[in-house]
Design brief:
- The structure is a homodimer of 464-residue chains.
- The first copy, chain A, is α/β, with parallel strands linked by helices and 464 residues long.
- The first copy, chain A, has two domains: 277 residues, 3-Layer(aba) Sandwich (Aminopeptidase), CATH 3.40.630; 133 residues, 3-Layer(bba) Sandwich (Glucose Oxidase, domain 1).
- Chain A has 13 helices and 14 strands.
- In chain A, the strands form two sheets. In chain A, strands 1, 2, 3, 4, 5, 6, 7, 8, 9, 10 and 11 form an eleven-stranded mixed sheet that branches.
- In chain A, α2 packs across α8.
- The longest helix of chain A is centred in the middle third of the chain and has 21 residues.
- Chain A is elongated, with a radius of gyration of 23 Å.
- At the A-B interface, α3 and α7 of A face α3 and α7 of B.
Chain lengths: 464, 464
């Protein structure tokens, strides 16, 4: 039992909703409110995050640890009472770091804190050494002339990331994660390093996946911690600086990963999907990214199970595998379930940390927006506003969304998310149990309403 | 030129002091105020810290980098116009880490973030593996029975450090840094790990020196980052946990270190000493510990030089070597200057980070406390209060203080000091130039007053 529900008034939860859509019955709305109350008293989500991050710890996509996490997940979901618990395996290429080191060789010898970016090739034996050429932004590098001015050099993209609540700066910031190496290689550079994609100023580099352009030269690439990027820039103020980068990696053509699926069977074969991703980067224990999401959807499912009422639609919980390396589990899921995508009435993934939800963004048919509004009215006592109809549903909803499945984004406060994101400091101690409980309440109510509302979330097909 | 002097009113500095002691002339007090004004406009301290931490970076006691720092220091001090700039070398034993790794072996395999403690012996080839026995406090371990209950085990002391402004919790906290290994070894344990001596909750272990007791068994010892100590405790809640620790180190019987000395010659051979320490731990670049102190006393000396008035007493700036490994430079200084200790009228070291000074603590003869009060009245516009007569003068004043030299502690706000202390995150970006300028103002005024006040800071010798 949770003793304190900061900022959330249970009295407010008991207030009857006003102006329901016809699709949301008073009974369903009242049940959703009960789920919210129960969620705020449940420790299942918090305990799930603790159990996963303690017993498994880091769980890189395709690794033996990710396989242990799937075994853990099956046991955990069964023990909580979910039905149809199973793993849907898929194959994937494997990449992991083995060792990584960087240092200023001259004029001021000293180590630099770096981490290799996912998919980076290794450096040659003994590392690669080159003079640093600094670009203040990724755009500056992309605009550099296609001549030999970078031949044999190491490119350094020193672009800062802007702090935003909704993560809207990530798209800009992450462009350098692949772009630095690709644009550097086109111009003859031997390696590329970037200031970490992150908003903190501590000495913890942020990893993350990158992709080489097809047919291009592959040069090794890594992220500097923020203080090290600042240090390198300070050193460059004195004159030319030479850096040595030494990265070794392990790759395999094909390993097994998998999605873990569990269900609360409904009265029909229509599906509401809620999920998170089971894999994490290797540097931390994946608490915020995405142990939180795993915990939240599991805790939400558990309070629904405990309601002991069969929903109209089946509620499916998916722990996606191999999200970090390119949504591989999401694409495998969409492929495995290609014939039943029309049965997926709505989906939502929790994968933006462990902060409170502050808004609901739908992506429904324009004719169905009254349903988003009705959901938000029930969620409003949790501090959740109605936003636009441009929700993404979360990264692992991408293949479903692009196939036309309606989605909901329950947007979390991401103000601090990129402080820890993809670093060694993504650990369980960063999780606030009250914030998690608010998320669980929102997901439980959302899933229950989605499973019991009448009608579709899609526009009716146009008449031929 | 510094554009902004937060919290400090120059108008206040110009207010005439009240109730001077006879020892502090109005002229000297007015000159001290001018120095404070000039210090608040000077960038020398901040630039000194930047230059040292950028050009040298980490500078472990006795290392080649510390030697480069001495060369830098001589050039730097000469270029600023100090006189009698020289190195006073001394020999010392050398220790450095080579590699360090720890992991939970069972039941939940995963890496742990650790750093070896200074002077730790290496583990045997392949590391040492043992079951963890956790003690909540150092006292609990010290009180454990002297039987075989720890034989073959790895001791884990999970004690938190209390946050204080004045660093008064450090003495308690640091007891485990040597105590864990010594008490563990007495009871047959094969290694000892501690929760870092630090107040942050990030994944950056804190190093620091430890000492084996004479004639005792030496077991390897390391500090866990705070999140890793928490993780280990969480894992232990499930049952027995086995950890592997792998540390390799490099030691040498004798290497050269040295103190760097510079002077502002006075009219007499009496000495006022202000200092900081030049060495740092290897993990960061030693900005807060103790680049700040080096910068502060250098900046203070520079504004005194720029006053172009010869002080009565000589003001001596000392950059102590090898502080971190046991005040080796301080003891070497006291030994080299043993015959002139009576000429040392007062000393002060800046070695508690980069925060603002909030109080002056003297250690003067009881008959001389009016001089401390007079100094404080001049410093008061900087926000500096008069405290007690129990000042230590800073770590490197220990040998002088114990030999009877009067000292002053200009106490810095250390609220955040142990967040970064002895970690990889002790880097230049953590330095606030306005806070440094306030320190420079206080040290310049203090040193000038001490050099020009009439009479001694000691009690008159008792008549035989």
């Amino acid at each position: 039992m949770r003793p304190l529900f900061a900022l959330i008034s249970l009295a407010a939860l008991a207030t009857p909703a006003m102006a329901q859509t016809d699709a949301l019955s008073d009974e369903t709305a009242m049940q959703a409110r009960t789920l919210m109350e129960n969620a705020l008293e449940s420790d299942v989500a918090y305990d799930t995050i603790r159990d996963l991050t303690t017993r498994i710890g880091p769980r890189l996509a395709g690794s033996e640890a990710e396989a242990r996490a799937r075994d853990w997940a099956v046991d955990h979901l069964k023990s909580l009472g979910f039905k149809n618990v199973r793993v849907e395996p898929f194959d994937m290429p494997f990449w992991s770091r083995v060792s990584e080191h960087a240092e200023i060789v001259s004029p001021f010898p000293q180590p630099l804190a770096i981490t290799a970016l996912g998919n980076s090739v290794a450096t040659p034996e003994g590392g690669v050494t080159g003079e640093i050429v600094r670009f203040e932004t990724m755009n500056d590098l992309a605009a550099a002339p296609m001549d030999d001015s970078l031949k044999g050099k190491i490119v350094f993209v020193d672009e800062d990331m802007v702090r935003t609540q909704d993560g809207s700066s990530y798209g800009v910031a992450v462009a350098k994660r692949s772009g630095a190496a690709n644009e550097a290689a086109k111009r003859g550079a031997v390696a590329a390093i970037i200031k970490s994609v992150g908003t903190d100023t501590f000495r913890r580099p942020h990893t993350g996946t990158m992709r080489y352009i097809d047919g291009g030269t592959k040069v090794p690439t890594a992220a500097l911690a923020w203080p090290d990027a600042e240090q390198l820039t300070r050193a460059l103020a004195y004159g030319p600086v030479t850096v040595r980068l030494d990265i070794s990696v392990l790759t395999k053509d094909s390993v097994e990963s998998g999605n873990v699926i569990a269900e609360i069977p409904g009265k029909t074969d229509e599906l509401v999907v809620i999920g998170g991703h089971l894999d994490s980067w290797d540097l931390g224990t994946g608490a915020v990214d995405d142990g939180a999401g795993i915990g939240i959807v599991t805790g939400a499912g558990k309070v629904i199970l405990d309601l002991k009422k069969k929903p109209e639609r089946t509620i499916r919980i998916v722990y996606f595998g191999a999200e970090e390396v390119g949504l591989l589990g999401a694409f495998a899921y969409a492929k495995a379930h290609a014939t039943e995508l029309d049965k997926h009435v709505v989906g939502a993934e929790s994968d933006f940390g462990a902060g409170r939800i502050y808004q609901l963004r739908s992506r429904f048919g324009e004719s169905q927006l009254d349903k988003a509004a009705a959901m938000q009215r029930v969620l409003e006592p949790l501090g959740i506003a109605l936003a636009d109809n441009e929700g993404t549903g979360g990264p692992d909803m991408t293949p479903l969304r692009t196939a036309g499945v309606p989605v909901v984004s329950l947007s979390q406060n991401g103000w601090d998310y990129f402080d820890l994101h993809h670093t060694s400091d993504d650990t369980f101690d960063k999780i606030d149990p009250d914030d998690i409980a608010q998320n669980v309440a929102a997901y439980a109510a959302f899933a229950w309403m989605a499973a019991n509302m009448e009608g579709s979330f899609r526009d009716a097909p146009a008449a031929d």
